Amino acid sequence: MAEELPVYSKSQLALRNGQDKPQIWVAYHGYIYDVGASRLWKNGMHYEHWAGQDLTEELQKAPHSASVFSKFQIIGKLKDQ
Q1: I need a surface site. Which of 8, 23, 32, 64 has the fewest CB within 10 A?
Q2: Distance between CA atoms of residues 18 and 3, nearest Å
Q3: Cα 38 to Cα 40: distance, rounded to the nearest angstrom
Q4: Which residues fall within 8 angstroms of residue 13, CB to CB, at 6 or more apart?
Q5: Confidence check: pLDDT of 77 > 90
Q6: CB under 8 Å to 3, separation ≥6 — which residues?
């Protein structure tokens, strides 16, 4: 039986920005990814993108595809607001 993913609110996600707590998380299409292991997300920032938020809309214009998230562990789901 598959384990249910925990659900986090946007305010809980916002705390995982690499500044307020050591975790560096981002949301994309309803899932929350732990990007802390990536040197590209050091200090919670990747180019003009900040961790701790839903990047679904912002990444529509990114120079890479959504497959970049396959490298990272899904640690939860973003609560519908």
Answers
A1: 64
A2: 27
A3: 5
A4: 25, 27, 32, 52, 53, 54, 78
A5: yes
A6: none
